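Journal club prep — side note

Before the paper discussion, L.F. wants everyone to see what a predicted structure for a comparable chain looks like in token form. Sequence:
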Amino acid sequence: MKKIISTAAAVLAFSMAFADVSVEFTQAGYVTSDRDGKSVKLDVNGYDSDKKITGCVVTEISNDVAGVVFDLDPWMNDKSRQTVDGKMLDQYYGWVNFLGGKATLQSGVWTSRSVNRMKQDAGSWENAEYEAYKPGVITGTVAKDVTNLTDGNLATQLSYNFDMGYAKFAIVDSDYGATSLKSGFATEAGFNVSQDLNFKVYLKNLKDQEIAFAVFGESNGSFKEGLDLVAGLTFGNVKAEGGFEFGVDVRARYELNEKLAFTTMNNLSSVNAAYTLWDMISVAYKVSDKTKLTVTGEWNYADLAMKESGSLSIIPGVTYSPCDGADLTTGIIIETTGWKKPSGSSVSIPVVLHVAL
């Protein structure tokens, strides 16, 4: 108790020097589930298929010049539910602006993806129930989740904003391999063609002779009002193993009106000529200012050269927001595997509580 009080007092004292303090809390669990052949009921400690997602507390303290962020996953103190790395602090980093706000130096552990992932209607659904894969080579070694420059490792990054775009350069903690270097390198640059159209380029070299490269284009209403579109090409090469991988991403969201929106995410990936396909489509309907309905379908074919390696998920859900900053999400996750001839299935009902202050 003394430690908790001391920590709270320190945070309060520190925050008094800053203009903005925000806190987000998320807690997830199952009402019932038979995922992975395991039947559970009223499990308040996690709901995704790997039991890694239970809850988190994100605190940000900042002003116009500097700030710090802590993303705490307190359940990881439970030894029986730790992830492989067992980290309690999922993210922790600080940043400072200079040169009139055009440049930013950031250091710590964080996950950041600047490309538009079309998650406006995802709500509090975890990744597997809305965005099973991030942009890049979804089965890749070096080009998986390519727009995440740091791969969630300790890093220091310098970014600079200019009139027509931005540039980032990061050194990322890594056993580089060929020399005594203890860090790899990652760069990102964005270019605004117009107000509604931009291109982003990513280059990652986190280990010797392992390179990932990607180009993404984003259109926000330039083709049609209400239509957002993202398309990208990703390439990766592991020279020592003679491995080559590539991925094609296409994502779009069309807002038909203020109540109804459609989202789709699609990826075709190849690693050494083995192809993987992932498609997602979702419909969101705003019943009222407090209630939104969604229906999401995800199709994944692990290897197009193999039979019965496909899986299909259908997730109808509802999000209720009694006030600004608070929402409750639930639904039914229906999964079938073994396509083209389904041989397995499961039904789950998760509940996610999210509060932001």
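L.F.'s comment for the group: The longest helix spans residues 2-15. Keep this in mind when we get to the figures.
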